[in-house]
């Protein structure tokens, strides 16, 4: 016949751990302490990743700058008769990106581009890729970007308006 378990012990022979006491305490401490240390680090890491995600991945929100600064970074100046559309911006973390948009008389766009970037190829509509402009120009060190310019690349997108003006989107950045 089998001996019944004692109410105070966990083993049939009456020895061992008293009832109600287990060895989960040391195990729980061993698991909980590293979790308490790693959890704040995980929260900080997730916060950093989410704070650097602004669509561009460059880590900073856009700040407003004078349009003359944005254009100068790409070796240009605001043409006569042009008026800014919205704010000119600067974004950057490891790379720097300036953006500007302005309206100017449609008839002056070609002359402004030729004067600003004399060694650049002629702007064309077929280089816009996807129809997001009527005239586009992509510049780099080997494609007409003047020496001494801080930017590594410049993109100009022109959309002609029915009112005789052109919306020029100017982007200058480092890579």
Automatic annotation (TrEMBL):
The entry's keywords: Membrane, Transmembrane, Transmembrane helix
Domain of life: Bacteria
TM stretches of this protein: 27-50
Protein name: Secreted protein
């Amino acid at each position: 016949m089998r001996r019944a378990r004692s109410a105070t012990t966990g083993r049939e022979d009456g020895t061992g751990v008293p009832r109600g006491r287990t060895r989960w305490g040391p195990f729980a401490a061993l698991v909980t302490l590293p979790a308490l240390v790693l959890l704040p680090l995980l929260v900080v890491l997730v916060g950093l990743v989410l704070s650097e995600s602004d669509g561009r991945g460059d880590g900073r929100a856009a700040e407003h700058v004078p349009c003359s600064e944005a254009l100068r970074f790409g070796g240009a100046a605001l043409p006569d008769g042009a008026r800014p559309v919205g704010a000119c911006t600067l974004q950057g973390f490891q790379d720097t990106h300036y953006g500007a948009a302005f309206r100017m008389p449609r008839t002056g766009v070609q002359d402004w581009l030729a004067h600003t970037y004399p060694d650049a190829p002629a702007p064309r509509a077929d280089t816009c890729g996807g129809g997001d402009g009527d005239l586009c120009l992509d510049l780099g060190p080997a494609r007409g970007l003047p020496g001494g310019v801080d930017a590594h690349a410049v993109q100009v997108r022109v959309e002609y308006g029915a009112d005789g003006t052109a919306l020029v989107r100017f982007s200058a950045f480092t890579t």
